[in-house]
Write a structure and sequence with these properties.
Strand content: 5-15%
Radius of gyration: 26 Å
Helix content: 55-70%
Order of helices and strands: HEHEHEEHEHHEHHHHH
Strand order of the largest sheet: 3-4-2-5
Structural class: alpha+beta
Number of strands: 6
C-alpha cells in the first residue's frame, strides 16, 4: 500500500542536488524572455498608446458580447468595449487611426451601432487621448515596480539578512521578466490591468519568500551539525506543502477567472497565473540557490548577543 513519508530533518527532499540544472533553466528562460522583449517588443494596449474614447448610451442594458461581435464585423475589431457606470453606459476605446479624426470615428461608430443594434443609441462623449499620456503611464508603472523591489530589499535586509533579501529581489525580478517575456512572445496586450497583475505577483511571491526565509533562519539556528545545503533542503521540504496548497488553490481561482471572467480580465488572470507558477518555482529553487551561492552560514543568521547589565562588573570580580 502507498504510504506518505513524513518530511523532517532526517528525511528532506534534495532540492539543492539539482540546483545546477535549475540555474541553467533560469538563465535560459531569462535570456529567451529578454530576447523576445528586444525583438518583438511589448504589445502595448490603449492605456499606453492612447486612442479615441467613445462613450455610448443605450436605452436598454447593453450586451457587451454582441457589441464586440458587431464591431469586429465592421472594421472595429481592435476596439475595447466595457461598461462605464451603469449597464446602459458603454465605453469604447479605439486605437489611434491616422487617417481619421476622433469626431469622424465617433460618427462611424454610431452609424455601425444604429445599423446593427436595436433600440435607441446616442454618443455622449468623444475624446482623443494622445500617446504622451501612455508614455507617462508606462514610466510610472515601471517606477512603481522598481520602488516596490527596492522597498522589499530594504525590508527583508532589516528583517532577516542581506543575502536573503538579495535573493528574494532577484527572484521577484525573474518572475516579472518571465511574465513580460511570455506576453511579448505571444503578443498579448499589456494594459493597466497587466501592470496591476505584475505588482500583485510581486506581493504574492514576496509572501512565499518571507515564509521560506523565516524557516531557513530558524533551522540554521536549530540544526547546528547540518551543512547549509542540508539546512536549505530541510527548510524547503518543511514549507513545501504550504507552498503547493497556496499555489494550487490560487491557480484554481485564476483559471476560473480566465475562462469565465470575460475579456476584460482575461489578461489579468493570465498574468497572475503565470506569476503563481514562476513564483512557486522561484521560491523553491531560484532564491534558495542564490542564498547558497552567496555563502550563507549559521553565524550570519544568529541574533546579536545582548550584553547583560552588570556583566562587565562581574568579570572584574
Amino acid at each position: 500500500m502507498f504510504q506518505i513519508t513524513k518530511i523532517d530533518e532526517n528525511n528532506p527532499l534534495r532540492f539543492m542536488s539539482i540546483n545546477k540544472w535549475t540555474t541553467i533553466l533560469s538563465v535560459v528562460l531569462i535570456l529567451l524572455s529578454l530576447g523576445s522583449l528586444a525583438v518583438n517588443k511589448l504589445n502595448w494596449g490603449l492605456d499606453f498608446t492612447g486612442g479615441t474614447l467613445v462613450e455610448v448610451g443605450f436605452e436598454q442594458p447593453a450586451d457587451l458580447a454582441e457589441l464586440r461581435t458587431v464591431l469586429e464585423a465592421n472594421e472595429f475589431g481592435d476596439a475595447v468595449v466595457q461598461n462605464y457606470g451603469t449597464q446602459r453606459d458603454v465605453l469604447v476605446r479605439i486605437p489611434p487611426r491616422e487617417e481619421a479624426a476622433s469626431d469622424t470615428i465617433g460618427n462611424e461608430l454610431l452609424t455601425v451601432l444604429q445599423r446593427n443594434i436595436e433600440g435607441g443609441i446616442d454618443v455622449r462623449r468623444v475624446e482623443f487621448v494622445g500617446p504622451q499620456v501612455g508614455e507617462e503611464l508606462a514610466e510610472a508603472g515601471g517606477l512603481a515596480m522598481l520602488v516596490a523591489l527596492i522597498c522589499i530589499l530594504v525590508y527583508v535586509s532589516f528583517r532577516f539578512e542581506w543575502r536573503l533579501a538579495l535573493s528574494a529581489v532577484a527572484g521577484l525580478a525573474q518572475d516579472v521578466i518571465l511574465i513580460l517575456g511570455v506576453f511579448s512572445l505571444l503578443q498579448m496586450q499589456v494594459d493597466l490591468t497587466i501592470l496591476a497583475a505584475l505588482l500583485a505577483v510581486i506581493g504574492y511571491s514576496l509572501n512565499d519568500s518571507i515564509v521560506v526565509a523565516d524557516r531557513i533562519r530558524e533551522n540554521f539556528r536549530k540544526l547546528r551539525k547540518n551543512t547549509p545545503e542540508e539546512v536549505i533542503d530541510i527548510s524547503l521540504s518543511q514549507t513545501l506543502s504550504r507552498t503547493l496548497v497556496t499555489s494550487l488553490t490560487t491557480l484554481l481561482v485564476l483559471l476560473v477567472l480566465m475562462f469565465f471572467g470575460g475579456q476584460m480580465i482575461f489578461g489579468f488572470a493570465v498574468a497572475l497565473s503565470m506569476g503563481v507558477i514562476v513564483g512557486t518555482y522561484s521560491s523553491v529553487f531560484t532564491r534558495s540557490t542564490l542564498v547558497l551561492a552567496m555563502g550563507i552560514s549559521r553565524d550570519d543568521l544568529m541574533p546579536p548577543e545582548v550584553e547583560k547589565e552588570g556583566e562587565e562588573q562581574d568579570n572584574y570580580l
